[in-house]
Amino acid sequence: MKRVKLLFVTMAAMLLLTGCELNRKKILSVEELPEAAQTYIREKMGDAKVLYVKKERKNFKTWYEVKFDNRMELEFDSKGEIRDIDVDD
């Protein structure tokens, strides 16, 4: 009986911990990006206006997606370093 209780408690804890982390998305302002990402946007994006900044977390990794009015999307890692550049056709 003790093993069943221990197994149940262990499984519940694992589900709780992983459930809190999966697919967390949050809309942010540009000022909430890491400083390196803010600098990149100021220096490289010129007059393009930011439509939204989205912070995503999955499998204990964090990244930021920034969408601009010129149909460009940048992706930054948790340190603010550029990971991907995408342009919608």
Can you walk through the features of this model?
By secondary structure, this protein is α+β, with helices and mostly antiparallel strands. It has a single domain (24-87), classed as 3-Layer(aba) Sandwich (Inhibitor of vertebrate lysozyme, Ivy). 34% of the residues lie in helices and 38% in strands. The protein contains 2 helices and 5 strands. A hairpin with a 2-residue loop joins strand 2 (50-58) and strand 3. The protein is elongated and about 65 Å long. The model has no long low-confidence stretch (mean pLDDT 87).
Short description:
The protein is an alpha+beta fold and 89 residues long.
* Secondary-structure element series: HEHEEEE
Total of DSSP H or I helical runs spanning 4+ residues: 2
The N- to C-terminal Cα distance equals 61 Å
Gyration radius, rounded: 19 Å
Assembly type of the chains comes to single chain
Strand count = 5
Low-confidence regions: none
Percent of residues in helices comes to: 25-40%
How is the secondary structure organized here?
Layout: H1 2-21, E1 24-28, H2 35-44, E2 50-58, E3 61-68, E4 72-77, E5 82-87
Give keywords.
89 residues; alpha+beta; Inhibitor of vertebrate lysozyme, Ivy; five-stranded antiparallel beta sheet; 2 helices; 34% helix; elongated
